[in-house]
Design a protein that fits this description.
The chain is of the alpha+beta class. It has a single domain (20-205), classed as outer membrane lipoprotein receptor (LolB), chain A. The protein has helices at 3-20, 112-120, 243-253; strands spanning 32-41, 47-56, 62-68, 74-78, 83-87, 92-96, 135-137, 144-149, 157-162, 167-178, 181-191, 195-205. Strands 6-5-4-3-2-1-12-11-10-9-8-7 form a 12-stranded antiparallel beta sheet, covered by helices on one side. The N and C termini lie far apart (124 Å).
Amino acid sequence: MNKRLWTLAISMALTAASAQTSCPHFILEAPMVVNIEGHFINVKNSRESIDVEWRHHPESLDTFFVNASNRPQFNFITAGSYRYMEFPDAKIKRQLGTHHLKETIGDTPLKLDDMELLANGQFLCKNPTEQKSNVFSTALSMTWWSLTADTLPTPQSVTMRGARKETRTFTIRQWRNYSGSTLPTLVKLESEQYNGEIWIRSAYPIQALQSDPLKKNVAKKAQPQQPELFRKIPMKGERKIPLILKLNQELLRE
């Protein structure tokens, strides 16, 4: 194959690949702040927890503020085409490639890949004659190959299949409307090696970030006015000694 044909073949392959990644499916369309909490029994049969604040920007960077039990806090920032992690306490940034997405978040069963899918929803474009409408093939995931929902648009069960024949199922117990966006609020996660519960504590438009109901400082209650008996009364000069103490001092001198 000469150089021109080789260049044409590469160009066609890249065009086909880019066409396949042009069908994103988002669980969240509007710019929102979502506070998520999860508790798990991991592959080591130990209890782990996670607390995540997800700031979703459909047209910009998504940021996840992550607190996992017994691990340093970190931020995961992704634009889809690139991503990195920040460790605020150590003032360190770590650039991430797609191969890093298979890393777990602390000792929880969740992976960086899960946050990437939430933020950018990168799935392949499939012809309906080739694939059912409730089956989605991931485009760039390093962990999960497919996602199957029992019904759309608000499934009760979602199964994900991936590398090493790993399978996990999300059972969605409740959907709730948050400022026009419908999200799964109570979710049970099950796999052969781990299980857990995930729920949304709050979700609201990103414009209302400053008024996060979970982060408002509780106003300090006004201290009750002390009765006269317990007030500190400033005195000038030497402190006066009560009469009873003076009498005791005189008796001791005798």
